[in-house]
Amino acid sequence: MKEEKTYLKWYNKVGYGSGDIAGNVVYALLSAFVMIFLTDTVGMNAGIVGTLIAVSKLFDGVSDIFFGSLIDKTHTKMGKARPWMFYGFFGCAVCLVAIFCIPADISATAQYAWFFIAYTLLNAGFYTANNIAYSALTALVTKNNHERVEMGSIRFMFAFGTSMLIQTITVGMVAYFGGGAAAWRTVAIIYAIVGIISNSLSVFSVRELSPEELAEDEVKKEVTEEEKYNLIDAFKLLIKNKYYLMICASYILMQIYSATLNMGIYFMTYVLKNANLLGVFSWAINIPMIIGLLFTPTLVAKWGGMYKLNLTGYTIGTLGRLGVVIAGYLGSVPLMLACTAIAAFGMSPLQGDMNALIATCSEYTYLTSGKRVDGTMYSCTSLGTKLGGGIGTALAGWLLAFSGYVGGAAVQSASCINMLHIMYLWMPMCFNLLVTLILTRLNVEKANEDLRKQLGHTS
Q1: In 3D, which of 397, 407, 436, 400 has the Cα closest to residue 421?
Q2: Residue 58 has what DSSP assignment?
Q3: Over 80: is that where the pLDDT of 322 sits?
Q4: Mean pLDDT of 85-109
Q5: Number of domains in the chain
Q6: How far is the C-alpha of 201 from the C-alpha of 87, rounded, in Å?
Q7: Long-range Cβ contacts of 180-186 (<8 Å, 24+ apart)
Q8: Which residue range is the domain that position 406 belongs to?
Q9: N or C: which end of the chain has fewer CB within 10 A?
Q10: pLDDT at 382
Q11: Residue 220 CB partners (closer than 8 Å, separation 6+)
Q12: Average pLDDT for residues 284-288, to the nearest whole number?
């Protein structure tokens, strides 16, 4: 087996990874705080907000495949993905601020409409274009699988670091700026500016390989022939790839998991009686995750691939979340934190090698069909983030409303407290278990190896 060619310097990988600062100033702020902002500051009904978010998700599946297909067909001096990533984030920034600028002097119906329009434009439009393009760059700037794993690990170090920081400082920042809607608006503007800067840095830190470079040493097809497919053809290529469907399902479940944990602000406030514990638990999640990501490229190489490592890691992650359930009912915050850290460490390999796994999945489509659909394939990351995060947030809104939650109340009912235990303790553990079951079948690396042998190719 010949040594793989390298394409990137360390600063290319770090520059690329910094782009997830931008993605997470949007995602972390929305997933952790938009619901409590809408219910406790604006005064909206949690159930109605949850329904609006769920309806908004109906637009997302089509837009993901649509933008993925557009990226595959884009040809500019900047490449296929980078223009969409660069320009898309400016729309993200505007929509993020708009969500936290809902006027107080308009009717309740108009407020719900304002939120729905801004949220849908953000998720189904601008965030989709930016995030799919960002993820697709993993397959477009290097063909070296080890570099792809490194890019994924560095990317998610920035992602979890940003998420941890936002969950730690946002409540304090809102208080510092005087509290209320004006303070939330100021925080959103600051985060939007930070996102624009980091996104731009990421875009211009790498260059895309030419179509000819990408096609070298692969199944020989004319580049023009590869790209003769429409949106329907792209969709058919995706659903024919069982590994894409598995990755997509896993990604959605992972994001629902994250969304339910991000609703922890309610658990900390009304069960543990200390809203600032959200930041402490964020550290317990993100520090072990970042440590795990540091070792992921080495572990992938040592374990001879991603399959066994991901499966073992998520098994540990599921057992760790079971420990959180037990500790939660025992009322032991230190034990909850310890088990949270164990779960996060176990889950880190899949986060780190996910982009490489999707690139391998895209290779499976190329080996079976001769068509290169990297942008379309990476639609699962945007679809998973938005659909999973949206479902998780919507589900939280529905469950809160069902349990009788009263926004801003000092004390909640027993039924609400019981529901918060289900949302924060049981649901994340169940979602982890489902991902683990999917991972038992997700051995796309072996499938590609078998296909290459059948086709008479070596790598």
Answers
A1: 400
A2: G
A3: yes
A4: 95
A5: 1
A6: 13
A7: 180/41, 181/41, 181/42, 181/100, 181/102, 181/104, 184/33, 184/37, 184/41, 184/100, 185/97, 185/100, 185/101
A8: 15-204+213-455
A9: N
A10: 65
A11: none
A12: 92
Query: How far is 357 from 88, CA to CA, in rounded Å?
Result: 25
Q: Note whether 246 and 441 are within 8 A (CB).
A: yes
pLDDT tens, residue by residue, 27-66: 889 888 998 899 889 999 988 998 898 888 777 667 777 8
Is 8 or 259 the better-scoring residue by pLDDT?
Answer: 8
| Closest C-alpha to 322, from 309, 346, 337, 339 | 339
The answer as to whether 28 is a domain residue is yes
pLDDT value for 41: 92
pLDDT over 50 at 223, yes or no: no
For the cut 50, the answer to whether the pLDDT of residue 224 exceeds it is no
Residue pair 385/131 in contact by the 8 Å Cβ criterion: yes
Residue 352's pLDDT band (cuts 50, 70, 90): confident
Length of the chain: 459
- Residue 6 within a domain: no
From 336, 324, 354, 359, select the one nearest 431 (Cα to Cα). Answer: 324
Token pair belonging to 32: 């952790």
Domain membership flag for residue 8 = no
Among the listed residues 301, 275, 14, the one whose alpha carbon sits nearest the alpha carbon of residue 168 = 275
Q: Could you tell me the maximum CA-CA distance found in the chain, to the nearest angstrom? A: 69
Question: End-to-end alpha-carbon separation of the chain, Å?
Answer: 7
276 DSSP 8-state letter: T
d(CA 258, CA 310): 18
Q: Is residue 255 part of a domain?
A: yes
The CATH number covering residue 37 comes to 1.20.1250.20
Q: What SS3 class is residue 342?
A: helix
